[in-house]
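Exercise: predict the structure of this protein bound to 4-(N,N-dimethylamino)cinnamoyl-COA.
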Amino acid sequence: MSDVVLRERDGPVAVLTLNRPDALNALSNELMEQLVSTLQELDRDDDVRCIVLAGNDKAFAAGADIAELARSSAIDLYYQRRIERWDAIRALWTPLVAAVSGYCLGGGCELALACDLIVASESAKFGQPETGVGVIPGAGGTQRLTRAVGKSLAMDIILSGRFLAADEALAAGLVARVVQEGEWLDEAKRLAQEIASKAPIATRLAKEGVDRAYEGPLQLGLEYERRLLYLAFASEDAKEGLNAFLEKRKPEWKAR
Ligand code: DAK
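Solution:
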């Protein structure tokens, strides 16, 4: 594969690293295509139980590639099927941890928000500065950011273009964990291994349940959750997990 997305594997955890450091990992069409096809390939591999998506110390990603946007028409973007790629990320079964250091802006912030949770360095800066270049957040930013941090702060970030520091992002509920500079990737990998060690089917169903809470009204979410619970309860892994606890041993997951 091209080197704009690097890939490594540590047991059940895959780590993908965005690799356009000279452009602060701006999300070019090529990068997004590679990223989504790699994610889909990993998602089909039952042995991959969690994926970490990382940038580098200076940037997770500073947004869509502005040079590319500047020379594209709306119809070009439409034909490039850009929106479908974002839908494909939303459809992944495998839990996705964003590991963020430095700039996480525009489409980069939307990409982190499309992951299941964010681990951030103290140096991380989140923002949706699109109106500063004449566009708006178009890959879920007006929706996901608003749900994550509430209307007032989302309006502030989106309309003023100001960057949110990591501690503010933590207080607002945008990120799950903030760690010291230099620790962000290790922490994300540790967390991914922890997620990967849990019962696979239950993990997938729990993720789906949280997504429903995030995406729809409460009553529908509660009904959805009940169905997910019965499905999880019917798995062999549920019997194994419950019995292992009672027998004071480590469970052996079969993903059945
Ligand atoms: N695109 C392309 N190149 C970028 C870039 C970007 N978003 N951000 C930075 N770069 C490049 C710079 O041009 C520079 O390249 P050289 O001049 O060295 O060749 C290099 O990265 C280093 O950047 P700076 O020299 O600017 O570095 P500084 O430390 O001075 O400033 C900065 C860092 C992050 C504050 C600054 O680079 C900046 O403001 N960047 C732009 C941030 C921004 O406005 N992002 C929002 C872009 S709009 C869509 C879905 C999503 C979107 C669109 C469509 N569809 C589904 C259709 C999303 C839109 C956006 O994200």
